[in-house]
């Protein structure tokens, strides 16, 4: 695995180092030791798939606050997308700055998103599939979001947004949330982690509430 740190500290582009032969290639896509060697906590609480039927599908910009901060290792396994992250760590010199990386099924590139970042992506092709390994359970009570078209964020999207959830159109602007976001993203020594409460469906299975 080849790690390239972006200008946002702790956020890495991760490329495969394939071993090729007549069959194709083999490559390691995740390794605890290699992640730790680059200062990345290799915790995986959930592994998610995101199927996107149409080009121009926007998902984002989502975050969980410092009570249950989630890292993400995002990879596109079919099609292509532009993955965008925003630094929401109040103590960071790059607070509110963003990085965008094109992930495709062909380049097999991954983006590691540190905790306390907002994350979202826009699909560049029909039938695009993304996978992401997440370092914390989805915790509805601590989630939040930013508008993808908020001028305060300065985000640029290469194709028109054609499909987006109603929820993602209703996030407040950053200026309206700034004080709250700074407070929610502040790390406090006495603040313990928040874990997702489990609820049961009538058949006894765990209810799911993550529709991002």
Helix content: under 10%
- Tally of helical segments: 3
Structural class by helix and strand composition: mainly beta
What is the strand tally?
A: 14
Gyration radius, rounded: 17 Å
Mean pLDDT: 89
Q: In percent terms, what proportion of residues is strand? A: 25-35%
The global form is: globular
Q: Oligomerization state of this entry? A: single chain
**Order of helices and strands, N to C?**
EEEEHEEEEEEEEEEHH
Q: Tell me the strand order in the biggest sheet.
A: 1-2-10-7-12-5
Low-confidence stretches: 189-209
Please describe the biggest sheet, giving its number of strands, its sense, and whether it closes into a barrel.
Answer: 6 strands, antiparallel
Distance between the termini: 28 Å
Q: If you had to describe this structure to a student in words, what would you say it looks like?
A:
The chain is mainly β and 212 residues long. The chain is built from 3 helices and 14 strands. The strands form 3 sheets. A 6-stranded antiparallel β-sheet has the order 1-2-10-7-12-5, with no helix packed on it. The longest helix is centred in the C-terminal third of the chain and has 11 residues, at 174-184. It is globular. The chain starts with a strand and ends in a 28-residue tail after the last helix. Mean pLDDT is 89; it is low at 189-209.
Provide a quick synopsis of the model.
With 212 residues, this protein is mainly beta.
Which descriptors apply to this entry?
six-stranded mixed sheet; 35% strand; 3 helices; mainly beta
């Amino acid at each position: 695995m080849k790690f390239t740190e972006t200008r946002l500290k702790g956020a890495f582009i991760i490329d495969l180092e394939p071993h090729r032969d007549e069959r194709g290639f083999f490559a390691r896509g995740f390794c605890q030791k290699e992640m730790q060697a680059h200062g990345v906590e290799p915790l995986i609480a959930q592994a998610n798939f995101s199927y996107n039927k149409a080009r121009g599908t926007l998902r984002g910009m989502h975050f969980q606050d410092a009570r249950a901060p989630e890292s993400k290792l995002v990879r596109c396994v079919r099609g292509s997308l532009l993955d965008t992250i925003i630094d929401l760590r109040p103590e960071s010199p790059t607070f509110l700055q963003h990085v965008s990386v094109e992930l495709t099924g062909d380049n097999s590139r991954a983006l590691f998103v540190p905790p306390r970042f907002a994350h979202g992506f826009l699909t560049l092709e029909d039938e695009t599939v993304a996978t992401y390994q997440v370092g914390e359970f989805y915790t509805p009570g601590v989630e939040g979001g930013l508008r993808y078209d908020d001028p305060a964020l300065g985000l640029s999207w290469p194709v028109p947004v054609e499909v987006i959830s109603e929820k993602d159109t209703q996030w407040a602007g950053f200026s309206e949330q700034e004080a709250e976001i700074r407070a929610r993203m502040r790390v406090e020594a006495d603040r313990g982690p928040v874990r997702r409460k489990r609820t049961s469906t009538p058949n006894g299975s765990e209810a799911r509430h993550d529709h991002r």
